[in-house]
Task: structure prediction
Amino acid sequence: TGFFLFTRRAKAHVFWIALGLFAMAFFLQSRAGLVEMALIFMYVVFVDRQFYISTRIKRMFIILAVLTAIFAALDVSYTGKHGTVSVETVEDSIYSIFFEDETSNFQDTKDFRMFWWSNVIHRTCSSVPTFFMGMGESVILNNASNGHGEIDRYPHNSFLSVFGFTGFIGLFLYLGLIFIVGWKIFKVGRSRRKVVLLRWYPVFLIGYLAGAFFSTVFEAPFHSFIFWAVSGIIYCVAVEGEAPARDFATDLTRSQMP
Result:
């Protein structure tokens, strides 16, 4: 949403983007979501250059700082599905992404992921055939309970799931396909600046890839379908945009020739 807003010049956009970022950080309750926001933000600023770094970035951080100070002073909090959320828990969430903290409530889930990620890598790399071809789709990569009496099966990292199921070859082909589609759209989008849909796709791609690194994005049929459907449609737009404009009169003359 912020990307589309910044394609149009307006002073109020800085405030609304800052407010949206703050609301997402406060209500999201997801470290993966915070990482996605940070990566998308850096792309928009340093790669697509949607707004002036020297002025608008400063304004945005000032607004974020003021909102954070107000919520902290008023001790605003609410109870979500993952527990009580406040400015302090958001700070703990950001801190836990980069550092270990045994007193943090987020350390358990972090340790859980690190254990199963290393477990999947070790099992897949245990022999040459499994390293290149994987262990097969019938293998349960993660046999831990999710707390509801059900087996998770996936290690909460879509790339490791692809690696575990199909090996290095499968992961290489999968990432290669994503790269081909993404690079085509990015390249055409850089030359067709007025086609906002092409310029928005990298934001969509970054969000999905960052989410896939921490969750079961590409394993879930709904998420996977949305990703490839949107990617396919925008890829077609990019292919059409890359083709040179045809001369309608020339085409009409050629069609009338015997």
Remarks:
- Confidence is low (pLDDT under 50) at residues 245-253.
- The two ends are 52 Å apart (CA to CA).
- The chain is about 70% helix and 5% strand.
- The beta strands are 77-80, 83-86, 142-145, 151-153.
